[in-house]
Each structure stands twice: as structure tokens, then as C-alpha cells.
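Friendly challenge for the regulars: who can give me the C-alpha cells for this chain first? No prize, just bragging rights.
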Amino acid sequence: MPDSPAAEPPASPAPAALPRALGVRDGMALAASSTAATTSIGIGLGALAAYAGRQTPALLIVAFLPILGIALAYARLNRSEPNCGNGYTWVGRSIGPWPGFLTGWVLLVGSVVFMAYTSAVTGSVVLQFAGKAGLHGLLGVRLDPNSTLQSTLLGLVALVAVTVTAVTGVRSATRLQWWLLVFEYTVLIAFCGWAVVAGDQPFSWSWLNPFAIGSFSSLAQGLVLSVFIYWGWDAAFTVNEETRNARDAARGGLAALGAMLGLFVFAAIAFQRVLGDDEMVERGPQALTFLGGHLASEPWASLPLAALMCSAFASLQSSVIPTARGALAMGRDRTLGAVWTRISPRYGSPAVGTVLVMAIAAAIALLAVGIPRLNLMILTAVNSIGLLVALYYGLTALACAVRFRGALREGPLEALRAVVVPGASGLALFALGGYLAYLYATMSDHFAVAPDNGWFMLLLPAVFVASGLLAAAWARWRRRSPYFTTGRGTDAEAIALPMDA
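First reply, four minutes later:
Bragging rights claimed.
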């Protein structure tokens, strides 16, 4: 509840220190699971192909360059100020509290929306698996993997299950994720390698040529989709306060990002060795399942679907964890309510916040049932979240360039690493997001609640940003958060942290 504006509010209860039990492996597992390579490959390559065609591998390589610059900015900022609020804290201190709050807000909102839609994807995969097992109907209802309602209801069950595991602590969650990652990557690499060798579509070096993409607008839209596909590696930086060494978070995030580049490009080439242009787009969320059936007979043909299901579950879990910790960082600064700071005395995790994140994501998932086909729903979410990701990545990169601008006097190499590369990467994402917003604003002559309507696709991120400005105003003048005076986030280890039951 907000504090009275008549008097300076007392400090809100601070969370207990989170247990430092994580290492590089755990950060990498969290980052890799959050990026969800198998899910991104299974449902995202078809969307990319709609814009880039046979140049999808090239598009993924080009998109990696600014993302790498962003990752280097994260690593440098993390060395100087490890904090589970990361971008929210860094941008607030370096640029200002309003853009800092907006950075944290759009990440929270984007993550919650992502969980809502990923839960539906998870439900769709479960329904596909049921069909493989011969179960095509239940209680007189035909099971349809493309049904948003059926997929959402099953996905909500999965969301509750992963929330339970997230509440019990990050350490136990990352152990499970390592086993899921080993299985899904083994299956993914094996089938993609098989497709590269056995595919009947001729390979062409033009697949790696970004200049062969049809138009600049297609390139821009494809790049935003690619940014979304890479999104998630920064999850490693949200468990700084549960990591034995803050540098381990950076190592885990960068290692996961490099692995994603290799997997995405390899998988894109593999898909194009088997599927034609139209098939890549038409197969949509079932592309990976089709690849398995094309290359092998049962039961081996079901292995890619099993890997996809593991990836979807792991992605849900690894999204719940950093989202709750981002809210914890904002809650202890009183920019969000104190409820987000409550640490479970049994599990040492922000249990209440984790459950709240799950509940909000579930509510959004149910609202999204109004879009009847799952693949159209996914495309709407990806386009909307892609703009938000470009915004908060860009702000964080610029925060790095501003904070370490003194490196310009320390020689060309240091200036390049600390200022030029982060600054250029941030500006590139801003320019990309601005151009795409312009395309959305001019692509339709009327408003319609449809995933191919430009005004609707622009409305969603605009609402998210506007709601963030309203929430910031509430925190500034009603909660009287000190964050808006200093721009600095609370250092969880700099104060005595009482246990909040």
C-alpha cells in the first residue's frame, strides 16, 4: 500500500541476504534456459524466415553483434556494481531515476507477458505430445495444439509447477535445468547435424549474406525478432546476490550467449537443408516436430518434441526466477511495494514475489485467449516484446558508456571497450526500435485488435511504457522512494537486512 504523502515514510522492510550458493555453471544454466534455444528454434525460425527468407542464418549473425556489445556493457557494469536489479540500478545511477525505473519496469512487464505466452507454447507442446501418443480427444473434446484456449489451460498447470520449484530456491532449480539442457541440446545437435548431412535442399553461401535480404524494412523487423530470440542471457545477472563471485554471473551470461549464437545459426542452416521457403513459414510452432518426423521414424521422431517440451518448461522456470528478483530490487528501493521484498525463511527466496509473478502471468495468459490461433498470438507477443527489449537493452548500454566515459582518456582500446562499443550498440537498438515503430505506425490505415495490425502492435509496447511512467510517478510522489532522489539502488550487503516473515 502507498505511504501517506504527509510524512516521510519509514524504510520498508528489507529482504534477508540471499544465500550465496551459485557459481558459473548455475549462471550459465539460468541464462541458457531463459534464452531457451530449443524453443526459440522450434517456434522462432519460421517467423524469422517470413522476413529474411533463406538469409535467416545471416540475420542471426548480424543481430548478435549489437547484443554482444550489450552483453559486454552488462559485464562491465556488473563488475563495478553487482545488483539483482542490474539495468534498473545501473541506468538510474548513470542516466537518471526515471529512465532507470522505466528500464526495470519494461523488463518486468515484458518478462511477465513472455511467461504468459510461453505457458501457452508449453501447453501446445504437451498437446502435440499427446497426439503423438495417440490421444486426440479427451472428455468429448478434440485436442488441438493450435487452440489457444486448450494450450493456455495446460500451460497454466505447467506455470504453477515451475513456480513451486522456483520458490524452493535457485540452486535446486538450476540443478534441474542442467539436466534438461543436456537432454535438449543433445537431441537438438544430433537432429540438426543429421539434417545438415541428409537434407535435400542445396546449401548456398548466400544464406550467410545479410545484403541479400529483400528490403531494409524486412531486415529491421527480422532484427527485432532476432533480438527477442537472443533475449534471456541477462538472466544470469539477476542472481548476483546469490552468486559466490559477481564475475561468475558475467561469465555465465557471456558463455550462454556465445553458445546461443552457434546453436541458432547451426539450426537455421539445418532447417533450410530440409525445408523450403514456404515450409519454414507455414510450419510455425510445429517446425521442429516436422523435422523430427522427416528424418526419423517413431519413437525417435518424438525426441525433438520432447526436447522442445523440456526447453519450454525450463524457460518458464528461468523466467519466473529473474522477474521476481528484479521486483525484489525495486521493492527494497520502495519503487514497488514491500510485498516484493519478502524472503522465505525456509527457502531463502522471494517466495511471495515469485507467486505474484506467476499469478499475473496467468491472468494475462487467460486474457490472451481472445486471439484464436496460437501462432498468431506468438507473433503478436514477439513483436511487442522485441521493442521493449530493444528499449531496456539500449538504455543499459548507454548507461555503461556514460558511467565509464572517463575511459576516453585512458587510450583507444579502453575507450573502445568501455564507451564506444556499448554506446554504439545501444544507439543501434534505439534506431532499430524507432524505425520499426515507424513501420508499425504507417502499415495500417485503421486500428484492429489483430496481430497483423500495425497500430495494435504499436499500442501494446506504448501501453507498457505509459504504465511505467505512471508507476514511476506513483513511486516518486506517493511512496517517496529515495531512488528518485539519488538514482541509486539499494545495495543488499551494505545494510543490515532483517528477515521479513
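Confidence is low (pLDDT under 50) at residues 1-24, 493-501. The first strand starts at residue 137 and ends at 138. Your move, everyone else.
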